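Postdoc handover notes: sequence design on the structure in folder B. Input tokens:
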């Protein structure tokens, strides 16, 4: 009998040129370039890199950004359709439905040529932030805010969400967040998306498959879980009793540990620096100090006492960044998807280029 790996842990399913992870040394690369080198670029440049396989030159970046900006607007009929639904506090349900609507309004939806797929890719990257911001405002009976062509991808999203031009640091933080969320090899949503693409389903359908998988609290929903946890702890003085109580009850502490990384997630290090800088700009270190105290106590309990390599993951300090950007917790997973869509598209394209339907076997018991 062949060995069965629960959760497919450690199983290599396919070859990819899109990203590389070394979980022992804490390395993440997009297309062979370390994330530390990419995080200071515009999101548009990183999106181009993932989708096209190389960093753009100045002309290519200018054209790509122009196409993104030209496709940011969404059909007013979509908003009317979405107003008919009550999505409660789960913004990802609304985003999933909105992407289905977007597919219906796209005349190229059922065309699968390279040019048609490129056009659909541009539309998806461009419209995700507009949809997320519009859905949030609609939930409060507020009119959507038109995209601002003068603003970067991240800054424009914050503007459409709040109606306020973000500070330079806030815009930088949002760009970095989208870049750090853009790609991470065969995570559950990407693998689910590649299964859909392997059947030669269209890009919209594959992305919706990714969204449905991202919704789970053990994947994209973990960031909201950290934000809720920070609220639950409520004060720095409560951190130790909160942590020890959770450990005694054998309850999961959100934002710590990762299936792949056995050291500090390289994205967490970048998010921590951004969170620290935002705390200084805000003149309020509360959220950062609270998170750092959680990190110190959990490092002692996990690493120093038990010798377990459990460190902050991407969700931990990203949740702190969202706190300082006044992003509601219910939007956390949808904003994750805004960044990840570029990586998802890259995986769709790679699957289409060398396709074989993904169909593993099961061991009957």
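Designed sequence:
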């Amino acid at each position: 009998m062949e060995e069965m790996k629960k959760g497919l842990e450690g199983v290599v399913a396919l070859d990819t040129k899109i990203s590389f992870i070394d979980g022992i040394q804490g390395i993440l690369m997009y297309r062979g370039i370390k994330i530390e080198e990419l995080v200071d670029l515009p999101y548009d440049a990183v999106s181009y890199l993932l989708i096209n396989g190389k960093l753009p030159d100045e002309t290519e970046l200018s054209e790509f950004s122009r196409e993104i900006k030209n496709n940011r607007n969404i059909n007013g009929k979509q908003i009317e359709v979405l107003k008919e639904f009550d999505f409660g506090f789960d913004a990802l349900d609304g985003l999933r439905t909105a992407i289905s609507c977007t597919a219906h309004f796209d005349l190229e939806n059922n065309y699968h040529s390279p040019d048609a797929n490129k056009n659909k890719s541009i539309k998806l990257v461009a419209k995700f932030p507009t949809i997320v911001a519009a859905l949030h405002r609609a939930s409060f009976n507020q009119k959507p805010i038109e995209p601002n062509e003068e603003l970067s991808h991240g800054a424009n999203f914050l503007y459409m969400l709040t109606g306020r031009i973000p500070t330079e640091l806030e815009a930088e933080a949002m760009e970095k967040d989208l870049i750090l969320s853009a790609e991470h090899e065969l995570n559950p949503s990407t693998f689910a998306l590649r299964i859909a693409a392997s059947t030669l389903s269209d890009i919209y359908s594959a992305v919706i498959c990714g969204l449905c998988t991202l919704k789970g609290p053990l994947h994209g929903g973990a960031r909201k879980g950290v934000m809720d946890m920070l609220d639950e702890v409520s004060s720095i003085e409560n951190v130790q009793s909160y942590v020890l109580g959770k450990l005694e009850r054998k309850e999961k502490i959100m934002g710590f540990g990762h299936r792949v990384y056995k050291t500090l997630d390289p994205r967490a290090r970048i998010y921590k620096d951004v969170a620290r800088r935002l705390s200084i700009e805000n003149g309020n270190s509360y959220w950062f100090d609270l998170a750092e105290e959680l990190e110190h106590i959990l490092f002692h309990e996990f690493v120093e006492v038990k010798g377990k390599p459990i460190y902050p993951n991407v969700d931990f300090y990203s949740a702190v960044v969202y706190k300082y950007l006044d992003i509601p917790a219910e939007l956390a997973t949808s904003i994750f998807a805004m960044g990840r869509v570029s990586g998802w598209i890259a995986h769709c394209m790679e699957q289409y280029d060398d396709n074989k339907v993904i169909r593993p076997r099961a061991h009957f018991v």
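Context for whoever picks this up: The chain has two domains: 27-215+335-353, 222-324. Don't rerun without checking with the PI first.
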